[in-house]
Design brief:
This protein is an alpha/beta fold. The chain is 29% helix and 14% strand. It has helices at 48-53, 91-97, 105-124, 127-135, 162-171, 187-192, 200-206, 226-229, 249-257, 297-315; strands at residues 3-7, 34-38, 56-59, 78-81, 100-102, 154-158, 177-181, 196-197, 209-212, 237-240, 263-266, 286-288. The strands form two sheets. The protein has a seven-stranded parallel beta sheet, sandwiched between helices. Strands 2-1-3-4-5 form a five-stranded parallel beta sheet, sandwiched between helices. The relative contact order is 0.15.
């Protein structure tokens, strides 16, 4: 029986080519009975019509809701997320319908960790401020833009999962003390990476660089707000590479406006795409990127290869490697 896969059209670049490169599509040849196509249009939410048209959907940014799978003619059996986060997916609704959800936790770890270091280095070296004065011919002002050295400083990571552990690995050579706040932490794994597990309040107070690297869920929504920002050192930097709603953005804006911390690096926002009127976009001590800093050819190829392999495995009756809602698998 033919298995029909729809790859969401927002994964195409301006030239109409897959942003993850054509090589990853070779994975789909693993099942000769699998047919695939790009979905007809870019949508912000998967429609019931799409769920009735395909056995599987490879999804980037579109939301997956209860309405998506609510109709009686729902054909959909697997949703494969292009990435690790699934806060845009109504997981209970999929599970109740017997629809498997997969993600790609391994493929994303190193790229996000490297992206985090990119922001950290740029903030510590005051890269963008130095770029601006050089372009403006204000060479003499370089004495007023001293950066922050890393040796002996403290890196605090909110979230000790796969990305947090990868960040501990790649940050090891720079001579920083490393703290992790995570109530569900794998203590032996983090201790093996020479990190200390501490309460969030202590991490915020002692860190020179605070990095948010945890999943967004109801427990972590607005985990970092005014109370936590008030604990930070005046010379500390705040970095978010996870999800915008983990942070109370208005509290962050107020903290930056008051000069209570040195600056921030943000790859994510509470509202995406970010509102052009957002005050964060006008602050000289804030570096912003469009939830895409880790996007490289290497990153997207690895993600797509893993995500599409999940679809192939499912279509052949094999259990995919990274199922989010494991309870849905036996019901298929």
């Amino acid at each position: 029986m033919t298995f029909k896969l729809g790859i969401m059209r927002d994964l195409l670049n301006a030239a109409g080519e897959p942003s993850f490169g054509s090589a990853a599509l070779e994975v789909l040849k693993g099942n000769p009975a699998l047919e695939w196509e790009y979905t007809p249009a870019v949508v912000r939410e998967l429609t019931p019509d799409l769920a009735a048209r395909y056995d599987g959907l490879y999804v980037n940014s579109a939301r997956v809701t209860a309405a998506t799978v609510g109709r009686a003619d729902c054909r959909l059996r697997i949703v494969a997320r292009h990435g690790i986060g699934y806060d845009s997916v109504d997981v209970p609704a999929l599970t109740a319908k017997g629809v498997v959800l997969t993600n790609t936790p391994l493929a994303i770890r190193r790229p996000v960790a490297v992206a985090t270091l990119t922001l950290l280095f740029a903030l510590a070296g005051r890269l963008y401020a130095k770029d601006r004065i050089t372009r403006a011919g204000r060479w003499a002002e370089r004495n007023d833009l001293m950066g922050k050295g890393l040796v002996g400083r403290t890196l605090g990571i909110v979230g000790g999962g796969g990305i947090g552990q990868e960040l501990l690995k790649v940050s090891a050579p720079f001579g920083m003390r490393r703290l992790v706040a995570d109530p569900y932490a794998n203590l032996p794994a983090l201790q093996a990476l020479e990190a200390s597990v501490v309460p969030l309040e202590r991490l915020m107070a002692e860190s020179d660089f605070v990095v948010v690297a945890c999943l967004l869920n109801e427990e972590t929504r607005h985990l970092v707000g005014a109370k936590q920002f008030a604990l930070m050192k005046p010379g500390a930097y705040f970095i978010n590479v996870a999800r915008g709603p983990i942070v109370d953005e208005q509290a962050l804006i107020a903290t930056l406006r008051a000069g209570r911390i040195a600056g921030a690096g943000l790859d994510v926002f509470e509202q995406e795409p970010v509102d052009p009127a957002n005050p964060l976009l006008t602050m000289d001590n804030v570096i912003v990127t469009p939830h895409a800093l880790c996007w490289t050819d290497e990153c997207f190829h690895a993600i797509a290869s893993s995500g599409l392999q999940s679809v192939v495995d499912f279509s052949l009756g094999r259990r995919p490697a990274h199922i989010v809602n494991a309870e849905a698998w036996p019901r298929v």
